[in-house]
Amino acid sequence: MILAPISFAPYLKDVIWGGSKICKYKQMPATSDKVGESWEISAVPGHESVVDAGEYKGMTLPELIDRFGEQLLGSKVVERYGKSFPLLIKIIDANQNLSVQVHPDDELARKSHNSLGKTEMWYIIQSDEDAKIYAGLNTAMTPDDYVRRVAEGSFAETMAVHDSHPGDVFFLPAGRVHAIGAGNLLAEIQESSDVTYRIYDYDRRDAQGNTRELHTDLAKDAIDFRLYDELKSPRPADSNPDAEIVKCDHFDVRRLLVKGESVFKFNPDSFTVLIGIEGEAVLSYPAGEMVLKAGHTVLLPAELSGIKVSGNACLLSGQC
After folding, report:
1. Staple partner for 284: which of 141, 142, 213, 289, CB 3.0–4.6 Å?
2. Catalytic residue among 148, 198, 226, 255
């Protein structure tokens, strides 16, 4: 049995658009001024998370799954995904605009890459004044229109633009074009996939003077060209301590407000990911307790019951 929440060492990824907010937010020594992503929990090959404390320190997430299986993942997850961990959890710092991109759905990703697709959601942690999120289209177009727009360099103009504020929620189903605007620090919960089709990257060049690869043709087959009336998810009321903010076929994400001692119900058929957004929470369980600070993430095994949460904090809870 796994008798405690599990914490992992973050994988900090330097990227051309990264900044310096992630290390400050996680209260850890700065590693560079180009950290764009912290992979908090990952089973992506080559970037498997490693336990950083406790009885299982040094074990990778896949090794834990091999050892504990359903006790860790939950019966519902094992039935659907076997021994694969189905989510990827990140914290992202956009010091510059991210590229305009889209992700394939499960069917297309399986066919083209032998991978899951990539549906994701974003929770805005911090945002600079006038920060934006780009998600969805603001004008109707056909695939041929898309090809023409990309060729003439005007595709980015067709994207819907949204103001970004702490606490905002954006749901990005596979096929929805999107870009994180400069000045956003956010938490991302997504399917366990690293497949991205880049459409436009502002003609940026790396230190060697190279532009990043674009995937115009692949993206054309993945994009959902339909227009939608509402592309920004409703903000949960501050009066609701346990608010569902995204529920889809791939994950169920809730925002938890901890005031004093709280008891939250978690589905015992799935593992739970808890992300500290603000404040500090104490997780109490039969074998002990753990402090969850802002900027940190833990994995609650499916079989771990009797969790109590106390303190003054905002958390995200993700399950399958």
Report:
1. 289
2. 198
